[in-house]
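quick one before i forget lol
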Amino acid sequence: MSAPADVAASAAGEDQVAPLGSPAATSASAASSAAARARVVHGHKPSAMGSMDLSEESRDTVEVKDSDTWYPQFSPSATLGPAKKIDDDKKSGLSALLSSRMDRARFQERFLRPGSEEEAAANAAMALNSARAKAAEAAAREASAESLFNRSAKLGALLANRPDRRTLESHNVLKAPQGAGAGSKGKTTTTNAFAGMQAQLEASKRKDRLNALLAARPTLNELSKRGVLPTASASAAGAGADASEPRPAERLATAKSVLGDFILARPSAEQLVKQKIITDVGDLPGGLERHTRTQESVLEPALLERGSLAGGRQVVQVSLGFSHSLALDGQGRVHVFGSGANGRLGVGEGSFGEVAEPRELDAAAFGGEPVQAVDAGENHSLAVTRGGALFTWGTGAWGRLGLGDQDDAGVPKRVVFPKDTRIVRASAGAYHTLALSDKGELFAFGWNKNGRCGVGRTAHPSLLLLTPQRVAFFSTLSPASSIRSFEAGSGASFVVLADGRLFTWGQGALGATGHGEEADLWEPKQLELRDSEGKGVQVRGASVGAAHMLAVDAEGRLFAWGSNERFQTGVDQSASSPSPAPAAGSAAAASSASSPPPPAGVLSPRGGIVLTPTLVTLPGGALLSASSGAVESSAVFAAGKAHSLVVDASGAALFAFGAGARGVLGTGSEADVPLAARVEAAAFQGAKLKQVDTAWTHSAAVTDSGKLFVWGAKNNGRTGL
């Protein structure tokens, strides 16, 4: 840095001064200012602040006072701060000082220590360098913080959409795998954080799949097919190994063999807990509470006239959750019983215990209005009042209550919809909820994983819908048609329109959506049902279970598709084995392409899955109700966890098929029923059934006279008996 102006002038002679406004004067002024700032930092008065006229005739032009009050009071923060400026009064003081045009000797006498010009220049250089370094450091920190915040926000938005690996690689979150050459040394495919997150996610998925499989109480062959247990040859190989020092693979084979023998005995939930296969019933899909009562079951339908339903109270609707039940009487009053975990019974905040017999909820909980419909999800409940209000309560995780958060609710709380929206019907699934307004608008809220809410990926990239969102698909449908019935299931959903069209969407695993594959659908897609002649049919109603669906056409014929591992579709797959697809371009392929779909539906090569809608034959050729009324056609059949119940058109015959564990079929035993069989229940005494419902381990039916019958597992008080 150049020396201050007064030092330069001394070198050239005291009377040689650069003219005001010249480049030299300007440079000298800047340097002098720096020197002045340096003295301020070190506690000294400033040196010359700019170029001065040192002629004798101008020395006394302006009187310079000894007091410092007129002098600009500089401070390090004011002069050296990167974002600070000298304010107007300081600038005025500086102008007055420069205007004094005092000579060198007088300036030095008043403001400088003798011989300090060189020292001032050095101090000025050091001060300016330090100030610039600090300013650059502060700017770098600010830029780094802003960049980190922006990157974090973008990364959060990306991860909220649960992207696949290819998407993460395209955004440089993950690195694409590199070859094993010399240039690839030291490269990693993921960061440690993402590797840990991915490992936890995969472990969670494996645990969920194993829990779901064990909950279905599979056979030994099913466990072997899925690789949970070894095949007979693998077991034999393991048995012949040296027992003294078993290798890890042999130990695993032995453990699987022991597990197979244990599972083959169809253990209860308590036995699974005791053997530490599961920690508690909460590990099973949908279960959040421990079994606190004995594993007692009711194997046949039994009349429920206890608690608030005693005295001949007429029931018009029943709805069952994983471990709780709701009943609606003719006066619009709601009755609850079963497990109260997470507030799903709605009997009070903090009242999460069991209710062993029906208890009536206070009408004030619903604003004093009568209730016209109820529905129980796996772990939450809802009610629609006659005034068009929707109330939800129970488990709030994933936003399934639609209340704007994920908190549990121990009492019914009203869901807020757009102004002038009146709700007429609603359906509670496992993790999401659907609601229909009187204007025909369908709303969804909850967990949109696998697309189960039907709102698509683009309009709602977040998987959590904490408040009701419109399912826009049906408002733009052509030709337009009103919604006749709908239901939210465990992972999939459906809508039946008044013109007979059926739309499904959501989780496609095990063929649940019926479109011939297992891909997820993020928006509704029309599903065509065809009869034995390949002709399209009109759908009157449907029901969705854990991984299968049922539908009835305008003639009362029953169709089913999805998982059939426990015979829950009622489709006989024993006589049909799926053949491999013909090679492209072959004569067989051309013939297959030109022929209509087979009436038996499309079977998965894995077996145990029906990928497309398939006709189900009921004993004696029985048909279901095909009434034009939405309630009648949809209420006479129900798809449960791994079983199904249907009522014929007369209402006098109940048919069941699928898994019979815990007596859920009402046949008098826990045996599975591969094909539809009539439930011979003496308790019905010839009564006609107007509605049935079933869940995981218990079932219920309502007669035309308002009587409620229940059967299945009694634990947690879910049957109310």
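fyi The mean pLDDT is 76.
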